[in-house]
Amino acid sequence: MTIRLNARVDPELARKVKYLEERTRSSTTEVLKASLEAYYARVLENESPALLLKDFVGCAEGPSGLSSSYKTQLTDSLARKTAPKARNPRR
């Protein structure tokens, strides 16, 4: 599905679009799509990591204080998993 966009541009920008169309042998739609993709990528590069992760930060549940005690809890969990298991003698 596509959506039609209408935009008003000044004569100088229209001249630039026309130049890009001729230079790249592309339609107005193709020029605008490529331009918007490039602009989007440039804006995204300048986003802060915190802003990029905003939907993920704080979305999980767990023990309180996990952010400051995760190393200890991970070490304890790994120790429990790798500790030798006691044998139950068969009778």
Q: If you had to describe this structure to a student in words, what would you say it looks like?
A:
The protein has 91 residues and is mainly α. It has a domain of 40 residues. The chain has four helices and no strands. Helix 1 packs across helix 2. The chain is rod-shaped. The model has no long low-confidence stretch (mean pLDDT 87).
Helix content: 55-70%
Sheet of most strands: none
> Low-confidence parts, pLDDT < 50 over ≥5 residues?
none
Number of strands: 0
Q: Give, in order, the helices and strands.
A: HHHH
In short:
This protein is mostly helical and 91 residues long. The radius of gyration is 28 Å and the shape is rod-shaped.
Draw up the topology in text.
Layout: H1 11-24, H2 28-45, H3 49-52, H4 66-82
Helix pairs in contact: 1-2
Structural features:
0% strand; rod-shaped; single chain; 91 residues; mainly alpha
